[in-house]
């Protein structure tokens, strides 16, 4: 008898199970994910092991030596170069970008010196980020144009150069311009993210530093920066992932990888392999999978950052629930 | 005191220079759109607009660049993508927040894990799949994948967790509302602010996207705005400076309008999107 009793009690408190709605409401996401993401990922991986090439063909066979495409890609000088270019362009864009963003963050969050017009400045700094990258690339191609272009015009008027400089024939000039465009498009975004990171820090920490007589510089380096470690790592990794996928700017600023393939990034390389020339889908798929693995490894870093935060929050929530439960019990007892 | 004033002046000077740097390229673009090719060849930079706008427009309409087609195609794809991404992401977030199901935690972990994977690295498989089912040159191939937007689901969930009171859901149940009805008439209104922010970003990202549309859309009448812009790199525009600037201006005009109306919310949205606690 007592057994039956607990069963009915359990049933009554549990009520109807709504779990099925959890599955039902996440079903569209799940279906779209499997069809449009998971399946193409597996398909790309499989193509990497086959002889699949040529426009319009749909049949393919597995290679006798399955890793031929991967070996070929690793030995491919153009691919090696594209990986090198991607990293070079990313580094010369990211270092000034994060430095400037940190400087602006320090200025904008200085507690003793309020900067007026911050809202307007943020709007201006963020503007390039929202404009179509394709348009930006072609606009910069015109601005750095040769023999006539605004930049050459300015440099000649100022007397810095005597005759127009062709920015599209020097490999380093091409890389620098692409890196500059990336920098120009993204420093505003990074600044806003970092500022919001600083605003999320407990203000008591700054007050304590002030009472202890810390200078603004000391406060920034000893309090602000250490507190922003997570957000800085997050910015670094997301920027790196974005950098590894850089396509629009290098593709459209100079056609075909630029002088001596100096602006040929991995994405441009994959596009060129798969969708032009001899349509080497298999080679491009192998290169894609290599990039996929690199990016997956990087995003695992972001994943761990997020998960830590998430778990901390879950623990807090569990505690809060428990407290509420205890309170409710007490009230019920009274 | 004087040192402090100097430091302050430096901050303002740097910020104003950066501000000018943001505006100047676009200003050159707009001004040069009104200048003739001859004027641009004489002096590529000028701050004062000229009077050759209609001539440049005439050159442009005689060539491949068709801003109206591009605008309409981009409009359809971006609107479709945004509606799909926002509605289904909110629905998925609701499933994650309001219900206790066995696979909830693994499902959320999976969303976090795939959040950063860009679609570019799976483009070969995606293209081949679409080619086989005859979906290339079909806008649905660009719209339907947006139903699964892990990043948006993540943000929706983060927003819903503190703002959706499950008691309200429970009381609606007692009043006899079905679960789907609860979502549409109670949860969606609560989620409006988050949906608006995410909608702006999804829309702009979709509007600016070049890689996937370029692969999938090969027919001229399907070209989106960024593909139209990429055509300007062709040889037929080599000497038509004024026309190229005008085409670029036309391609970003809608974005400028949207940005200057919504900039406040956009900046707030960017700040919200960071991982701060």
Care to describe what's here?
The complex is a heterodimer of chains A (334) and B (277). Chain A has 14 helices and no strands. With 334 residues, chain A is mainly alpha-helical. Chain A has one domain: Orthogonal Bundle (MetI-like fold), CATH 1.10.3720.10. The radius of gyration of chain A is 28 Å and the shape is flat. Chain B has 277 residues and is mainly α. Chain B is globular, with a radius of gyration of 24 Å. Chain B folds into two domains: 81 residues, no CATH class; 166 residues, Orthogonal Bundle (MetI-like fold), CATH 1.10.3720.10. Chain B is built from 14 helices and no strands. At the A-B interface, helix 2, helix 5, helix 6, helix 7 and helix 8 of A face helix 1, helix 4, helix 5, helix 6 and helix 11 of B.
* Approximate strand percentage of chain B: under 5%
Number of discrete domains of chain B: 2
Structural category of chain A: mainly alpha
Contiguous helical run count of chain A: 14
Order of helices and strands of chain B: HHHHHHHHHHHHHH
CATH class descriptor of chain A: Mainly Alpha
Multimeric state = heterodimer
* Ends distance of chain B: 37 Å
SSE series of chain A? HHHHHHHHHHHHHH
Give the tally of β-strands of chain A. 0
Percent of residues of chain A in helical segments? over 70%
Task: State the CATH superfamily name of chain A.
Answer: MetI-like
CATH topology (level 3) name of chain A: MetI-like fold
Instruction: Please tell me how large the radius of gyration of chain A is.
Output: 28 Å
Give me the CATH fold name of the largest domain in chain B: MetI-like fold
Rg on CA atoms of chain B, Å? 24 Å
For the sheet with most strands of chain B, the description reads: none
Main beta-sheet strand count, sense and barrel state of chain A: none
Q: Beta fraction of the residues of chain A?
A: under 5%
List low-confidence stretches of chain A: 1-13
Helix content of chain B: over 70%
